[in-house]
Amino acid sequence: MSIRPERESDRDAVFDVHARAFGRRAEAELVDALRARAVPQISLVADEAGLAIGHVFLSPVTIGDAAELPAPMALGPLAVHPNHQRRGAGSRLVVEALERARRAGHPLVVVLGNPAYYRRFGFVRAALHDLRYERPAPEPAFQVVALSPGALAGRRGLVRYHAAFSSL
């Protein structure tokens, strides 16, 4: 298995991965919307024998009223086809996505997800840094990881995801 940037030819497989992993089309449709409208973006697939078996998307967020470049990013959706889960594809996607974001100069990444899963990648509760998710969500699930020393300094307030997320 390898991790690589998503290609145009992966679109149908990526849609299928998200639809099957989540048991609904909403996340797959979100990826389509983000792919078309989110700038900057990081879109990676886990490739096994030329087939996309997993996918992760990173899109820009704003914190408070500040517009930053490079922008802080949100991780998600993340999905692995059910037939390929529990073999490390999701973890490899997260590690590579964070590394690519770091190399591109993005200061931090937020995620709304299972703390037990994301803790291993360095994510901590965002509330510890006075960052709040823009919609009601279980507080421990909203997390952040700094991609460089001091990246969280001075960043406080409401974190707004790309408008495409309002469809979820």
Structural overview:
By secondary structure, the chain is an alpha+beta fold. It has a single domain (2-167), classed as Gcn5-related N-acetyltransferase (GNAT) (Aminopeptidase, 3-Layer(aba) Sandwich). It is 26% helix and 30% strand. The chain has a 7-stranded mixed sheet. A 3-stranded mixed sheet has the order 4-10-8, with no helix packed on it. Strand 2 (42-48) and strand 3 form a beta hairpin. It is globular, with a radius of gyration of 15 Å.
The outline comes out as globular
The number of distinct structural domains comes to 1
Percent helix, as a range, is 25-40%
CATH H-tier superfamily: Gcn5-related N-acetyltransferase (GNAT)
Radius of gyration: 15 Å
Q: How many β-strand runs?
A: 10
What percentage of the residues does DSSP assign to strands (E)?
Answer: 25-35%
